[in-house]
Amino acid sequence: MPYSTSSVPFERRASSNPLTAYLFRLMTLKQSNLCFSADVSSAETLLHLAASLGPSIVVLKTHFDIVNNWDPHPRKGTGAQLAALARRHGFLIFEDRKFSDIGSTVQKQYTDGPGKIVEWAHITNAHILPGPGIVTALREAASQWRERKKCEVKTDISVGTPRPESVNSDDEDEEIPRVSEDQNLKAISAGRKASIVSITTVSQSFEPADSTWSLNPAQEDEVFPGIEEPPLTRGLLLLAQMSSADNLLNVEYTQACVEMARDYKDFVMGYIAQESLNTSLSDQFISMTPGCQLPPDENGAVNGDGLGQQYNTPEMLIGKLGTDIVIVGRGILKAADPATEAERYREKAWGAYQKRISGN
Fold it and tell me: Which of 224, 209, 207 is nearest to 83 (CA)?
């Protein structure tokens, strides 16, 4: 039988990827394997949902490019505010960008433009249609960002005190030009008024930077208790399978994703997939699965959305197909009380996981 992580608890799934290892511990601490897909067009709604659903989720999935009033300000904008909420409530941010272009283009899409995704999103994802170059390009951009953020430049500027003899004008309104000290000495020896001598020193040093994903890094009550902040790194998910009907991601494509993930496991966290794809002893990848929905009641049925989306329950996705995190959007978003519904999904998904690892 092929190896499977299905029966291994999250806390025992050691990963060489620091962000993956952190997520395993976060899921165990919060007893949650729920990702909320916040597909909304208002920044205010997005922030409100992140705050109210934060206690129930471990990942918040965003589409920044559908938010009409997205604020790109690096310290006070929408991404920065999401980062502060993630820090407070203990979840990671996953920008569902689905990159699919040549390396130089995706690097710019990842680091520049109005989104500057790398600044606030811990996780993003990509198709592998362009080949492995898309993974190496994103990994390089994330690494360069991390190196820049590891330290900040501290600049000190000091101005020397003017010499007493240099301030000898009887006219306080007279404009005195700044000149060099040699010029002043010559002026004094010639019996003329000296100008102000000002010595300016600029020095720079590199010091450890505060966390860049928090607006108030010094406030301890703003940090989710029981776990440290996530590592200053970024992660990638590969789109290996989709939940839409008649999609073109065939078995060969999925296997190519698996091989590519193994080649770049320091950056690739896992997959967007419909099942666990871990079949080797070294596979500790995370599988996140969209298309999860609960019926309104225990006897209800789960149907599609009429637009190609096919739904499955947490019991099916986690219990039988071995996925790790379920992604839920409209099932929560359209509920009368999204926070209560998110908690219902969390309980069902976590219960399916506990049943799975117990072998029942």
Answer: 224
